[in-house]
Amino acid sequence: MKIGIIVHSQSGYTAKVARLLGAGFSKRGDDTETVLLRTVGKVAPRSTSFEIRNAPAVEDYDLIILGAPVWAFSASPVIMKYLGQLGRLTGKKVLCFVTKALPFLWTGGTQALGLMEGELALSGADILPGEIIRAPAYRSEAKLRPVIDRIVAACTA
Ligand SMILES: Cc1cc2nc3c(=O)[nH]c(=O)nc-3n(C[C@H](O)[C@H](O)[C@H](O)COP(=O)(O)O)c2cc1C
């Protein structure tokens, strides 16, 4: 299976999850590519005046994993802009995840994941159950392991 793992990450935690996911899929023999979205222009919560410098095309992927930090009770504007640029995804599996620092799911996690999945709702993709990954678990590879295993299992079921 060809897998694209496409994330926005400012301080590195979402990127760390992406790296561990890439390793998890590669161990199964899948062909993975990870892209960290980069921007031109400063980005803050709810920014719109920036461009994505390296938005990858997704035609070649069977499975697309999209990750982002929660920013101000929403998904980062970078991932939302990227999702808005994606066209039809018919026949592809897509799984979204978010990382967040505050402990409760209702402090932006559920909302951010809902916004990402909502943006994909009309794409024709098969949207797999997403994940909300909270601090402090994401600071430890050992604590991330069950999350990584769960995502890999959900994507290959
Ligand atoms: C501008 C900004 C806004 C944030 N807002 C929230 C929030 O509403 N809820 C939350 O749980 N964490 C919030 N965080 C914390 C990040 O979601 C968290 O640290 C995330 O894992 C960072 O991911 P990254 O290291 O990939 O950038 C915010 C962080 C930043 C920089």
Describe this structure in words.
The structure is a single chain. By secondary structure, the protein is of the alpha/beta class. The protein has one domain: Rossmann fold (3-Layer(aba) Sandwich). Helix content is 33%, strand content 28%. It is built from four helices and eight strands. The chain has helices at residues 13-27, 77-85, 109-120, 141-156, and strands spanning 2-7, 31-36, 39-40, 51-52, 63-71, 74-75, 93-100, 126-134. The strands form two sheets. Strands 1, 2, 5, 6, 7 and 8 form a six-stranded mixed beta sheet that branches. The mean pLDDT is 96. The structure holds flavin mononucleotide (FMN).
Quick overview:
With 157 residues, the protein is α/β, with parallel strands linked by helices.
Walk me through the topology:
Blueprint lengths: L1 E6 L5 H15 L3 E6 L2 E2 L10 E2 L10 E9 L2 E2 L1 H9 L7 E8 L8 H12 L5 E9 L6 H16 L1
Parallel strand pairs: 1-2, 1-5, 5-7, 7-8
Antiparallel strand pairs: 3-4, 5-6
Helix pairs in contact: 1-4, 2-3
Overall number of structural domains: 1
Task: Tell me the span between the first and last alpha carbons.
Answer: 13 Å
What form results from the Cα inertia axes? Answer: globular
Q: Which value, in Å, is the CA radius of gyration? A: 14 Å
**Share of helical residues:** 25-40%
CATH architecture group name: 3-Layer(aba) Sandwich
Largest sheet: 6 strands, mixed
Regarding CATH, which class?
Answer: Alpha Beta
Ligand types: flavin mononucleotide
CATH structural fold name: Rossmann fold
Arithmetic mean of pLDDT: 96
How much strand?
25-35%
List the helices and strands in order.
EHEEEEEHEHEH
Number of helices: 4
Pairing-aware structural class of the strands and helices?
alpha/beta
Count of strand segments: 8
CATH homology-level superfamily: Flavodoxin domain
In the predicted model, the low-confidence regions spanning at least 5 consecutive residues are: none
